[in-house]
């Protein structure tokens, strides 16, 4: 059996609301694709992805494996990311909900648990052993 890998731009995912983004990711993975995205979800989004995965687990879909590397940002870019994180917290307190967010700079791999056999993560890289 062959392994299918889909490379998806974070710009395409950023256009989707969080719920549709998570559904897009899970539908690709449930169909057997390993998804590589040039961005990293927030911790809250990743938790929501795991929660939604647990709701969908059955004999045909045993779950997912996720691995992300967030790019180290410095200087002004670091300031902008912290500012964005603070804005999200303030909006959650004032409005009562978390606004839709964009992906952070980095790379994420999401794949079916039945194909991803091992992920070895280092501070600046990760390697994946996948087998059909």
Please tell me about this protein's structure.
There is one protein chain. By secondary structure, this protein is of the alpha+beta class. The chain has one domain: 2-Layer Sandwich (Translation Initiation Factor IF3). The protein is built from four helices and six strands; from the N terminus they run βααβαβαβββ. The protein has helices spanning about 10-15, 20-30, 45-55, 75-95; strands at about 5-10, 35, 65-70, 105-110, 115-120, 125-130. The chain has a four-stranded mixed sheet. Strands 5-6 form a two-stranded antiparallel sheet. β5 (about 115-120) and β6 (about 125-130) form a beta hairpin. α2 crosses α3 (about 45-55). It is globular and about 45 Å long.
What's the structural blueprint in terms of helices and strands?
Layout: E1 4-8, H1 10-14, H2 18-30, E2 33-37, H3 43-56, E3 64-70, H4 75-95, E4 106-112, E5 116-121, E6 126-130
Parallel strand pairs: 1-2
Antiparallel strand pairs: 2-4, 3-4, 5-6
């Amino acid at each position: 059996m062959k392994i299918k890998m889909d490379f998806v731009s974070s710009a395409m995912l950023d256009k989707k609301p969080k719920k549709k983004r998570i559904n897009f990711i899970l539908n690709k993975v449930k169909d057997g694709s390993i998804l590589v995205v040039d961005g990293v979800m927030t911790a809250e989004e990743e938790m929501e992805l795991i929660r939604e995965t647990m709701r969908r687990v059955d004999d045909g879909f045993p779950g997912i494996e996720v691995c992300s590397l967030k790019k180290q940002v410095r200087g002004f870019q670091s300031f902008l990311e912290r500012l964005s994180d603070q804005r999200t917290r303030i909006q959650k307190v004032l409005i009562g909900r978390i606004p839709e967010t964009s992906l952070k700079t980095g790379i994420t791999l999401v794949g079916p648990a039945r194909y991803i056999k091992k992920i070895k993560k280092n501070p600046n890289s990760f390697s994946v052993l996948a087998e059909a």
